[in-house]
Amino acid sequence: MKWLNVLGMTLQFFSFWFAAPEILGEDKLKHYEEKIKKYISNLPTLIFGVPSLILLFVFLSSNKAIESGGTGVFLLILAVIFRKKIRIKFEEKIMQPLLDKLIESEDKRQDYLRIASILFTAGFILSIVATILS
């Protein structure tokens, strides 16, 4: 049941990020836009880098995991080589349009708040169920 509790906490964690734009509001989002871009633009590096490092660690800790380690090294090299291109495309295609919609559209922020409430409630229920069953 530990995994059920972890899943519930993960849903609650993600719910915060969906609620944050509405909590901050339009003025604060405009004010923090550059800082938000700076932090979010590192997301592609994390998406490639963290699994790569995990696979590399598996490789280094076990001689039997050569295939996993090779994959980890390969992903890490790709992340380093294409980091700038991936970051630029991510900013142009995903991050900037999303930030523009969140800043300009109260309806979009309300939609995200609704998603956050669903995620938080589902996470809370999962955590309660895990606590009762354990």
- The helix tally amounts to 6
Instruction: Note the beta-strand portion.
Output: under 5%
Overall structural class, as computed from helix and strand content, comes to mainly alpha
Mean pLDDT: 79
Judging from the principal axes of the Cα atoms, what is the shape?
flat
The number of domains: 1
Largest sheet entry = none
* Number of DSSP strand runs: 0
**Helical residue percent band:** over 70%
Question: What is the ordering of alpha helices and beta strands?
Answer: HHHHHH
Radius of gyration: 19 Å
Query: Any low-confidence stretches, pLDDT <50, length ≥5?
Result: none
Distance between the ends: 6 Å
Summarize the structure.
With 134 residues, this protein is an all-alpha fold. The protein has helices at residues 2-31, 33-40, 43-61, 66-81, 83-104, 106-133. The protein has one domain.
Outline the fold blueprint:
Elements: H1 2-31, H2 33-40, H3 43-61, H4 66-81, H5 83-104, H6 106-133
Helix pairs in contact: 1-5, 1-6, 3-4
Q: Keyphrases for this structure?
A:
mainly alpha; flat
Task: Explain how this protein is built.
It is built from 6 helices and no strands. By secondary structure, it is an all-alpha fold. It has one domain (2-133).
